[in-house]
Amino acid sequence: MSYVRQQPDRKLLKTSPMKRLFLKPALVMAPKPLLNASTADSNPAIIEKLTNDLTLEDEKGPDINTQLAGLVRKLLRKAKPNETKLNELKKQYISPSNCQGLSETRVNSNIWNNLGETARSNDLKLQKVEKYLMKGTTAVVTVTDSVIRDESNSSKEDNIGKLVDAVILLANEVK
Questions:
Q1: Beta partners for 101?
Q2: E-assigned strands of 21-131?
Q3: Helix H or strand E encompassing 4
Q4: 105 Cβ contact list (under 8 Å, min separation 6)
Q5: What pLDDT is recorded for position 118?
Q6: Using an 8 Å Cβ cutoff, are 32 and 4 in contact?
Q7: Distance between CA 136 and CA 142 in Å, rounded?
Q8: DSSP state of 3
Q9: What are 32's strand-pairing partners?
Q10: Cα separation, 137 vs 93, whole angstroms
Q11: pLDDT tens digit string along 12-25?
């Protein structure tokens, strides 16, 4: 790589010779790399790899049932289920007793009382999101458990219904 000496800054030339003695030499005469066409185009593979790595398009999987795709699109982007339906679904899915990870987080009242208004407001918003996330996950775990147990009374329609409930609960806080 070849270098060219850069001309000193005119402001530096106007400073006293004594001050220039204490300046870093790099500030006075910094070498500047020369770029030419052969250097700039010598690594197109690296640029291509970086471009591919930074692709902003999401990868897409295979198509799903058209009606299901429409329902999910509607739940995620357009309609919000009414509160009565959501409350019924939340009551329907109670976390299993041996799965403490699916229970709602409880806040220590002493800590809660010492929080400021902004912190409480933000925490309440997160609690609401967490509640729907836990209920939706509980619905998925319930279906998974019934498939594992291979319950004869667990029908395919019942499992699909529970999974759609899970989608409704999980999608509620996405919008």
A1: none
A2: 31-33
A3: strand 3-5
A4: 127, 130
A5: 92
A6: yes
A7: 10
A8: E
A9: 4
A10: 9
A11: 555 555 555 555 55
CA distances from 170 to 89, 91, 130, 167 (A): 11, 15, 10, 5
Give the integer Cα–Cα distance in Å for 104 and 127.
8
CA distance 51 to 45: 10
Distance between CA 140 and CA 159 in Å, rounded? 9
Type of residue at 119: A
Q: Which residue has 């795709």 as its token pair?
A: 69
Lowest pLDDT segment from 27-36, 53-62, 96-105:
27-36
Give the chain's length: 175
Contacts of 104 (CB under 8 A, 6+ apart): 127, 130, 131, 134
Q: What is the DSSP letter of 6?
A: P
pTM score, two decimals?
0.57
Q: State the DSSP string of 109-146.
A: HHHHHHS-HHHHHHHHHHHHHHHHHHHHHHHHHHHHHH
